[in-house]
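Hi R.,

Here's the chain you asked about this morning:
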Amino acid sequence: MGSYVNYMVSTDRRASPRPILEANDNGTSHSPMLDVCLRMLAEYRRIFNSRERQFTRDDLLLSAKEVTRIGQASVYASRK
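And here is the predicted structure, written out as tokens:
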């Protein structure tokens, strides 16, 4: 992703956001995200498994409350 951002910045003819990228590791995002993704996936599976399946396309849609629950799972329990 960092290479893509650098390419987009270098080919852009408008005001360049390069100073912002240089101040933030050149646009790379090497932060540990596995724990966050696993917590969100676990919450999604809890939601999905709690539903009564009817084998329709609507089974895959999430309500606003369900999306909020998945988003809240991304925050560590100690920071809530």
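One quick note: The chain has four helices and no strands.

Cheers,
M.
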